[in-house]
From TrEMBL, chain B:
NCBIfam families: hypE. Residues 37-149 form the PurM-like N-terminal domain. InterPro entries: HypE, PurM-like_C_dom, PurM-like_C_sf, PurM-like_N, PurM-like_N_sf. GO terms for biological process: protein maturation. Belongs to the HypE family. This is Carbamoyl dehydratase HypE. Pfam families: AIRS (PF00586), AIRS_C (PF02769). Residues 161-312 form the PurM-like C-terminal domain. It comes from Ruminococcus albus SY3.
């Protein structure tokens, strides 16, 4: 730990102000906070709540069903970020579909899926495009590249999401937000400034031990003043204007749409879909997919967990029926998921 | 276990693997010698023998630092060594896919012989089957070995005691990382080679320091993390690790950073986890550092009475957290 | 939400950058950053360089904490 991190740690450990509820919106924050044991340092009157910022966790059951339909009915090769493979659909997960003959390949980048399409012209490659503003540009680059090269065997199944309307849905869940640094690296800081004007406080945080300690210390110091605040604690990565070329690319390739968040329901205009000019690369259109409605397990309380309304351990199936090996809800799947993180790290 | 079919997670070496073994194999094979340790201990004549078997299906079959042949010898030699047994004889069974190049088979056999010679073990019988194209992935090898347990050795996963030190014999996760890179699924390039090595000499050297060694395990599939969880469960103790003391090669760290993986869960094929009384640990580490395959040996933590069955990490910010329990297939975490 | 990797740019060619994180190398898209040069540090996510960054988080903590105390 460097000197500044130690100072920040002291501020946190010695905080004696009013009770505070801080929500980390980003799943990687959740993960790092657990990995560092940061919660153990917090005084009793400070609570950290894990919000809906893990793309895997907010991916609805129906999206998995759609992917399985493409794999088993249409014989498509499914390419995806690794953690989506174990997310339960209505009947089964992609891992289950794989045991039934579906071809499912984890990739590091959607651009690798494009490369796979290039090299295997006889295979129909579908990439499962999940993620927030940070990840969406990579999916847009994939669609743009495929279009430019005239690839006919590559498409995206989109479930991309955006944060601004989600914050509105989360209003009142917390006294301050730990904003997701890598989302803001793309979008810039204006959305946080706007939230401050609406009375919502928060800081943009990075991901190292020093960055997380600093961000929390800044929240605790500012909370003393009792007025809305916003501080960019991650200036080495997040610029006020964000990444304009990425913003332009998203604007060119995708447009906002209503979308379902697992547990939160449909949030208007909080999703992104491919524009009509990219219809050839939209798996739903390309394969004339029927409407597929997922049926989540009714016992699962992932939705309330994501809104900070209940803790994972308040859910009846948590740790009993629902474990990382046999997840019922998506929050138990990804290491980033609030339930998985509580299950894995929470016991001490 | 609720599945009706075998999944890849059942083969990943974690919790689901033990569930499968308990439900199917233990249920059918139960007898007094059946073991959860790396090798069974058999009382035959006036001595104690250790016996072990292991199947190898690594893909690709050649990688930086070895091939499936070397691996198949090291695996069984190391399982025997972990029981304090000097490996004596091995048998090997090959299942080869139709169309497999003969020169590659010779290379594999040659490295088997070379590794066996180094470990002082003789390959005394074998079996060869050829399967039709597509029925197996190129080549599978199973080796079975027996060794004589040294009179002064008595180790088991159930012997770890509070106050013992936890030692690893080198940096963790190299083999798993090497295979991940060799598969070239993620387009990552790094200069990492497998730690695959026969470790009888390493084990033998430990007993020149002391006979008081409680547990020796080779951290293969599932890595050091999985082995520690197994020991914590078998001995009903806790394990406390110091995150900063765990040796990890920088490039392995880099690859893990890219894919969101934990090095403690990547396989090793030439690393031992040793549990021994704390006062003996420094001398053991000193001895290990003289050895060819254990130059980076380190004390990484200790056995505790609290947190029984769990592995806890002391983190860089001076807080404690749990090492996630080993589970399922290793999947890169990206978003 | 998004695992980011800070890495050093080794070279840049035709919209692709070779990056190095502790000796782990990979090609990533450089399409979203202008004027990327060898020696720059970038934040990489899902195979795309998304931001040019300064390497050390220590200086940053200094600056941020400075404003605070």
């Amino acid at each position: 730990m460097n000197e500044q991190a130690k100072k920040a740690r002291d501020i946190i450990v010695n905080y004696k102000g009013r009770p505070l509820r801080i929500m980390e919106v980003c799943g990687t924050h959740t993960h790092e906070i657990f990995k560092l044991g940061l919660r153990k340092l917090l005084p009793e009157n400070v609570e950290l709540i894990s919000g809906p910022g893990c793309p895997v966790c907010v991916t609805p059951v129906g999206f998995i069903d759609e992917a399985i339909w493409l794999a088993l009915e249409k014989g498509c090769v499914i390419t995806t970020f690794g953690d989506l493979i174990r997310v339960p659909g209505t009947e089964m997960s992609l891992a289950g579909a794989r045991a039934k003959g579906a071809v499912v390949r984890p990739v590091y980048s959607p651009l690798d899926a494009v490369e796979m399409a290039r090299q295997n012209p006889d295979e129909q490659i579908v990439f499962l495009a999940v993620g927030f503003e940070t990840t969406t540009p990579s999916a847009c680059l994939a669609a743009e590249t495929a279009k430019k090269e005239g690839l006919t065997n590559f498409s995206l199944l989109t479930a991309n999401k955006t944060m601004p309307n989600a914050y509105a849905a989360l209003e009142g869940s917390a006294d301050a937000f730990l904003y997701p640094g890598h989302v803001n690296a793309i979008t810039g800081t204006s959305i946080c400034e706007d939230l401050k004007d609406k009375g919502v406080s928060g800081v943009i945080a990075g991901f190292t031990a020093s960055e997380l300690l600093t961000a929390l210390a800044v929240i605790l110091k500012n909370a003393e003043k009792d007025e809305p605040f916003f501080v960019n604690c991650y200036p080495r990565v997040v610029k006020p204007e964000g990444n304009p070329p990425a913003q332009k690319l998203i604007e060119k390739v995708m447009e906002p749409c209503d979308t379902e968040w697992r547990g939160l329901g449909v949030i208007p205009m909080s999703g992104m879909k491919l524009r009509d000019e990219y219809a050839d690369f939209d798996a739903r259109k390309k394969y004339a997919m029927p409407e597929i409605k997922g049926r989540p397990n009714p016992a699962c309380r992932c939705g309330e967990v994501l809104q900070g309304k209940c803790k994972p351990c308040d859910c009846k199936v948590f740790g009993k029926v629902c474990t990382p090996e046999h997840p019922v809800g998506a929050c138990m799947v990804s290491d980033e998921g609030a339930c998985a993180a509580y299950y894995q790290y929470g016991g001490i | 276990m609720s599945e009706k079919t075998v999944t890849l997670a059942h083969g990943a070496g974690g919790k689901q693997t033990s569930e499968l073994i308990d439900r199917v194999f233990k249920a059918h094979f139960s007898n007094p010698q059946f073991t959860a340790d790396d090798a069974a201990v058999l009382n035959i004549g006036d001595g104690r023998l250790a016996m072990s078997t292991d199947g190898f299906i690594v893909s690709p079959f050649e990688f930086n630092g070895g091939n499936i042949g070397k691996l198949s010898i090291c695996g069984t030699v190391n399982d025997l060594s972990c029981m304090g047994a000097k490996p004596l004889y091995l048998t090997c069974a090959f299942v080869i896919e139709e169309g497999f190049p003969l020169d590659k088979l010779e290379e594999i056999a040659a490295s088997m012989e070379k590794t066996a010679a180094e470990a002082g073990v003789k390959i005394v019988a074998g079996d060869t089957k050829v399967a039709g194209k597509g029925q197996v992935d190129k080549i599978f090898i199973t080796t079975t070995g027996i060794g004589r347990i040294m009179d002064n050795a008595d180790t088991s996963g159930t012997y770890a005691k509070p106050g013992d030190a936890v030692i690893v014999t080198g940096d963790v996760g190299r083999h798993g990382c090497t295979i991940l890179l060799a598969r070239d699924e993620y387009g990552i390039d790094a200069n990492v080679d497998s730690d695959c090595a026969p470790l009888w000499g390493t084990v033998e050297s430990l007993y020149t320091v002391t006979n008081d060694i409680h547990t020796i395990r080779d951290a293969t599939r599932g890595g050091v993390g999985t082995v520690l969880y197994e020991i914590a469960e078998q001995s009903n103790v806790g394990v406390r690790l110091n995150a900063e003391d765990i040796p990890v090669d920088p490039a392995v760290k880099g690859v893990c950073g890219m894919l969101g993986l934990e090095p403690l869960y990547l396989a090793c094929e030439g690393r031992l986890v040793i549990i021994a009384p704390k006062d003996k640990a420094p001398a053991l580490v000193e001895k290990l550092r003289e050895g060819k395959y254990s130059k980076n040996a380190a004390i990484i933590g200790e056995i505790t009475a609290e947190n029984a069955g769990r592995v806890v990490m002391e983190t860089e910010i001076g807080a404690q957290t749990m090492l996630p329990q080993p589970g399922g297939e290793l999947l890169p975490r990206i978003c | 939400m998004c695992v980011g990797l800070s890495a050093k740019v080794v070279n840049v060619k035709d919209g692709t950058a070779l990056i190095d994180a502790n000796g782990a190398k990979r090609e990533v898209s450089a399409d979203l950053l202008e004027d990327l040069e060898p020696g720059d540090y970038v934040m990489v996510h899902a195979g795309v360089a998304i931001a040019k960054i300064t390497e050390s988080d220590e200086e940053e903590a200094n600056d941020v904490m400075e404003g605070l105390l």
